[in-house]
Amino acid sequence: MFKRVFLLFLCFAMFTGCAAQPTSPNTYRGSEALRTSSAETVTVVRVRPVTIADTDGMLSANSGVPGVLGAVVGAVLGARVIGNGNGRYLVGALSGTVSAVIAQTAATHLNRRDGVEVIVRTDSGRQIVVTQDADQQFVTGERLYLVSGASGYRLTR
User: Fold this and answer.
1) Is there a contact between 50 and 117 (Cβ–Cβ < 8 Å)?
2) Number of Cβ atoms within 10 Å of the Cβ of 130
3) Is residue 87 packed enough to be buried (19+ CB in 10 Å), middle (13-18) or exposed (0-12)?
4) Domains and CATH numbers, the chain
5) Each residue of 74-84: pLDDT tens digit?
6) CA 5 to CA 57: how far, in whole Å?
7) Which end of the chain is less crowded, N or C, counting CB atoms within 10 A of the terminal residue's CB?
8) Which residues pair with 49 in a beta bridge?
């Protein structure tokens, strides 16, 4: 019973750890709340869509940890559910391999999201590039607020 609960916990931990960290101007971390930031008005020079891939962290697709966890969970579950005798080792190896590929592919796709790269010009003529989640649409020539704080720059209306 304990082993099944532990394996279920590993499955949830593997897929929960693959969640991407938001870079939205609408999302603040708790450490950023109640802190001062500065804002200045800027003009949008160029906007282009990009893909943001979170490759940092132990459970990112680049670390290989999701694949290893998937292999372990798949091998144990496959060997316990299917097969008897020596056949269960073969089934465990096959299900472990398939589970590793599925977990690694899932981690790769879960760690990617749509973003936007915006080049803005300050009133003093300096150009700044800001990349953030694509939850706001900007157009060339639009006046925005460039908010700078401890976590970097954000663009907002």
Assistant:
1) yes
2) 21
3) exposed
4) 21-54+113-157 (2.40.50), 55-110 (no CATH)
5) 777 776 777 66
6) 25
7) N
8) 116
